[in-house]
Amino acid sequence: xxxxxxxxxxxxxxxxxxxxxxxxxxxxxxxxxxxxxxxxxxxxxxxxxxxxxxxxxxxxxxxxxxxxxxxxxxxxxxxxxxxxxxxxxxxxxxxxxxxxxxxxxxxxxxxxxxxxxxxxxxxxxxxxxxxxxxxxxxxxxxxxxxxxxxxxxxxxxxxxxxxxxxxxxxxxxxxxxxxxxxxxxxxxxxxxxxxxxxxxxxxxxxxxxxxxxxxxxxxxxxxxxxxxxxxxxxxxxxxxxxxxx
Length: 245
Hints:
Layout: E1 5-7, H1 19-24, H2 33-45, E2 48-56, E3 63-70, E4 76-81, E5 87-89, E6 95-97, E7 102-103, E8 112-114, E9 117-121, H3 130-138, E10 143-145, H4 152-170, E11 173-176, E12 180-182, E13 188-190, E14 194-196, E15 202-205, H5 223-232
Parallel strand pairs: 1-2, 3-7, 9-10, 10-11
Antiparallel strand pairs: 2-3, 3-4, 5-6, 8-9, 11-14, 12-13, 14-15
């Protein structure tokens, strides 16, 4: 099987314990050793790479949580910015305020053509909102990405259910590369990277325990099956009753 694209998690460059450290560690993509290294690998191996990183905002007060598409020529060809930020403040429980350090995105980036199909980019907490994925499907997406760093409690409760729901309702492949294990004393991620088919089948899934070596899930994107599903069960939206997304 020829590997045409590699999908990596959200915030693959770092996950800091505080908002101030998140901002202090950020580097522009064009000078980040991490991003430059991935670009060199993409070029060397003729492999497209999808990766979540931090990028500085214009005023330098926050960061952008972005997802880069690095083409097999090593160039950054597409990027999107996380739309929905994870802000949780539970009395007597955890407090996670992504908005303290992250600037929210302002647009849905249209799907783009790749060797594995038309890809639409979304990130982590965007998974809880069906509207962006439905919009991407309407614009021609075959694959929707959700690179993530889900918390363990929310991952146990909702991760696979949400991924399968987004795949089924858009009749698209969903690829969700996920951070796993402890990052620092404040953050642990659920893991369970997953590829889901347009029918809702789990094509591949990794575990929830951090290993000594990185794990990679391999799955085939079958666009003929995708077309068959869409033709045999057409989802004709009633835009005369509710707005088109």
